[in-house]
Design a protein that fits this description.
About 30% of the residues lie in helices and about 25% in strands. The strands form 2 sheets. It has an 8-stranded mixed β-sheet with strand order 6-7-8-4-9-10-12-11, sandwiched between helices. It binds adenosine-5'-triphosphate (ATP), iron/sulfur cluster and magnesium ion (MG). The site of magnesium ion (MG) has 3 residues, from α2.
Length: about 325
Amino acid sequence: MNVMSKQTNSALSVDRLVKTFDVSAPWLNRVVERKPRQYLQAVNDISFEVPRGGCLSLVGESGCGKSTVARLVTGLYRPNSGDISFALDKDGEPLSAQMIFQDPYASLNPRWRVKNIIAEPIRELKLRNSAAEVSERVVELLKTVGLSASDGEKFPHEFSGGQRQRISIARALASEPRFLVCDEPTSALDVSVQAQVLNLMRRLQDEFGLTYLFISHDMSVVRHMSDRIAVMYLGRIVEDGETEELFARPRHPYTQLLLQTIPNIDNPNRDREVAGGEVPSPLKPPSGCPFHPRCPIATAQCSSELPAVRTLASGTRVACHLVGDE
Ligand SMILES: Nc1ncnc2c1ncn2[C@@H]1O[C@H](COP(=O)(O)OP(=O)(O)OP(=O)(O)O)[C@@H](O)[C@H]1O
Ligand code: SF4
Ligand SMILES: [Mg+2]
């Protein structure tokens, strides 16, 4: 495993990343029941690039490995193998990444006033010299995310879900990161509030030149946010392309299936279920192409051979035996 940094046009390059979890039963149970150790391959040979100042979104159904990638990139997990390289900033330091989580309540200390929650990274990283400068910066950050100076005196439980996510964003910005990893930042919010928070995130991206790795299971959300989309299935990227290209010409059968389930005006209920049956257990992934049990066009080859990743003329990368440029 290597975590390194280099000078490139990508803010982040991830190369052949693998993360396996040991999910074995406790030792005594294994001995008594004669069970072998069991491993779960949550991230299986994943490579992608996030362009500087751009947004790459990872999409896919529950359990496909999106959060594991986020945790690997932010250093919360160590990969089994593969490289994670952040570009260098203008001072020659690797870009620092901050994470924004789905549940803002769980990631904010309920016993602290909001001003102290936001001030903590500023103090920790010694980004301001005096207490007065720290307070000034906290007020500036509150205003940046659409809150007021007096909100700093309150506690997290005094806010709505959308406001709490604004506080999380302010806290993430407090450490002056160049790179934000956003793991389902709006999934816990009402649809109307989701749009406000997403618009705020886009505005902040332009204002501060931020780069985003954005995670969602919701195709309409990622369409709004991303320059590029990587579609994940059972720990692998099956298609990765520019947003408009991917929506106009989805190439992988799984991407096509995901796009069919986008809610429309007549059917606004956001449904996490995708047609075509259940996702197989990552403990026993199917042979060959992992999508073959659900794939409407699978052939005999699909159940025995893992498709290689091909780069098409459009720049889309796709892993399917039946998809090519012709
Ligand atoms: N710490 C862990 N220990 C064991 N297994 C784990 C751990 N974290 C994740 N997994 C497993 O790895 C797989 C990928 O999980 P992950 O949380 O990355 O999926 P996800 O795409 O983020 O799903 P969701 O949309 O539900 O958030 C799942 O099968 C999950 O059960
Ligand atoms: S490789 Fe085969 S099973 Fe997999 S997506 Fe392509 S056609 Fe379907
Ligand atoms: Mg997740």
